[in-house]
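Recap from last week: sequence in, structure out.
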Amino acid sequence: MDMSIAAMSVDLSLAKTQQELGISVLKMALAADTSAVEEALAVVESLDPALGNNIDISA
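Predicted structure tokens:
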């Protein structure tokens, strides 16, 4: 397994680029999840806390 310095450099550079791409994708996914959670919390906070406490069973 005789690998030249140039080939090793290219391989390391490619690995670094792939790692940076993976990190970027994970950051985007985390940001999307965070915004979805914030929206869900806003909806839950806007609900009437008394909603569902009383049931009218007479018909």
